[in-house]
């Protein structure tokens, strides 16, 4: 990831404050905090553990003396009530891929404080989750695992395998996660097609200008054999007509993408690929019309679904999605990794460099666009 010129740290005067309200005990973020202090000698870091579990954050009391002084705020969910509480804040670095969870907050709607996401830090682990789920499905592992627990040797149950060579993965939202899915899928012999909201007709427009974990992704946008774009239903349908074997949903949640996939889209997938499309959603649950998804699973319009996100979360125990055929559900954990904090702090450090040098911030949120 490139950036502006290296900016010498200030050696005199009062230190600027980086206020961290993050979901790890401070020891779990030690490497990232030490990296900040080592690079920027003029920074002081104040760390608060923001306890977060099953989609809910426990109340966190941050003294006003720290919010008033903070030049930079690193957070996942916590924000003070209004922008007046952050009079000196130059940017807010979210440690999440998106910011839809605070889209109605006054700091988002009424302030001009730059907001940046950690988009890019999730690529490797979520791509592994997507490919893992696709292989689990295509190799009939759930059934074989059930047989193992029953201590049954039934070879015929493992004979109907569909390998991935020559199959097509359609990536709805070709961002950092989709680009790493593309890298792994290409290595397996799959064809990749990409969908973006804005047209990407030139080689320059297809490059990834966000944060990239070194050695991953598709920095130059060379993996897809075809690109599709647009925001209308007709545009989306043209993409879904392309005989897709694995559909990866990786679009941000906005008003336009809410219930992006519903019964007409599942019917179109089935018509295009009667073998059955496997749907993997690692975006947000609301991108899919969930009752329509349950019907599509029961009706055989798709071959199955892997869902790391649902609507709502946590998914109630009596929700019909749990019992739908050929569905695998995980509790919004595909982005987890033992180096998550380290990567997110790298994004923060790069943004502090760029903010100080007047460069373009990494992953700055376009408030009007919603991501």
The tally of strands reads 14
Biggest sheet: strands side by side, in what order?
10-9-8-11-12-13-14
Q: Largest sheet at a glance?
A: 7 strands, parallel
Strand content bin: 15-25%
Which parts are unreliable, with pLDDT below 50 for 5 consecutive residues or more? 1-12
* Overall 3D form: globular
Cα Rg: 22 Å
What is the H-and-E element order? Answer: EHEEEHEEHEHHEHEEHEHEHEEH
What's the helix count?
10
Secondary structural class:
alpha/beta
- Helix content range: 25-40%
N-to-C CA distance:
20 Å
Q: How confident is the prediction overall: mean pLDDT?
A: 94
Task: Characterize this entry briefly.
By secondary structure, this protein is of the alpha/beta class.
Protein model, in words:
The chain has ten helices and 14 strands. It is an alpha/beta fold and 371 residues long. A hairpin with a 2-residue loop joins strand 3 and strand 4. Helix 1 packs parallel to helix 10. The radius of gyration is 22 Å and the shape is globular. The relative contact order is 0.15.
Helices and strands in order:
Layout: E1 16-22, H1 30-39, E2 43-49, E3 52-53, E4 56-57, H2 64-69, E5 70-75, E6 91-94, H3 106-110, E7 115-116, H4 123-138, H5 141-149, E8 168-172, H6 176-187, E9 191-196, E10 226-229, H7 233-240, E11 246-249, H8 263-272, E12 278-281, H9 290-299, E13 304-307, E14 327-329, H10 340-357
Parallel strand pairs: 1-2, 1-5, 5-6, 6-7, 8-9, 8-11, 9-10, 11-12, 12-13, 13-14
Antiparallel strand pairs: 3-4
InterPro entries: D-isomer_DH_CS1, D-isomer_DH_NAD-bd, NAD(P)-bd_dom_sf
Organism: Setomelanomma holmii
Keywords: NAD, Oxidoreductase
């Amino acid at each position: 990831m490139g950036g502006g010129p290296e900016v010498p740290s200030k050696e005199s005067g009062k230190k600027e404050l980086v206020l961290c309200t993050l979901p790890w005990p401070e020891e779990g973020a030690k490497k990232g905090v030490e990296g900040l202090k080592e690079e920027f000698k003029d920074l002081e870091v104040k760390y608060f553990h923001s306890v977060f579990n099953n989609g809910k954050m426990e109340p966190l009391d941050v003294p006003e003396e720290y919010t008033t002084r903070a030049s930079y705020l690193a957070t996942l969910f916590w924000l003070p009530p209004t922008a007046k509480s952050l009079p000196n804040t130059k940017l807010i670095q979210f440690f999440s891929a998106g910011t839809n969870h605070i889209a109605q907050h006054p700091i988002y709607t009424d302030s001009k404080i730059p907001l940046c996401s950690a988009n890019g830090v999730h690529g490797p682990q979520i791509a592994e989750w997507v490919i893992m789920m696709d292989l689990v499905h295509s190799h009939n592992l759930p059934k074989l695992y059930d047989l193992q627990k029953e201590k049954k040797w039934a070879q015929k149950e493992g004979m109907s395998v569909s390998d991935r060579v020559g199959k097509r993965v359609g990536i709805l939202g070709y961002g950092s996660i989709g680009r790493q899915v593309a890298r792994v899928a290409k290595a397996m012999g799959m064809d990749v097609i990409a969908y973006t909201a804005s047209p990407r007709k030139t080689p320059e427009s297809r490059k990834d200008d966000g944060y990239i974990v070194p050695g991953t992704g598709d920095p130059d946008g060379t993996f897809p054999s075809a690109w599709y774009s647009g925001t209308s239903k007709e545009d989306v349908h043209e993409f879904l007509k392309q005989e897709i074997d694995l559909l990866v949903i990786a679009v941000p949640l906005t008003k336009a993408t809410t219930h992006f996939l519903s019964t007409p889209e599942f019917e179109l997938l089935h018509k295009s690929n009667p073998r059955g499309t496997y749907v993997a959603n690692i975006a947000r649950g609301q991108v899919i019309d969930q009752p329509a998804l349950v019907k599509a699973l029961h009706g055989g319009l798709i071959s199955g679904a892997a869902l790391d996100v649902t609507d709502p979360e946590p998914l109630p125990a009596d929700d019909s999605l749990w019992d739908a055929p050929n569905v695998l559900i995980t509790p919004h954990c595909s982005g987890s990794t033992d180096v998550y904090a380290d990567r997110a702090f790298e994004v923060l450090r790069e943004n502090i460099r760029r903010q100080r040098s007047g460069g373009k911030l990494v992953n700055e949120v376009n408030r009007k666009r919603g991501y």
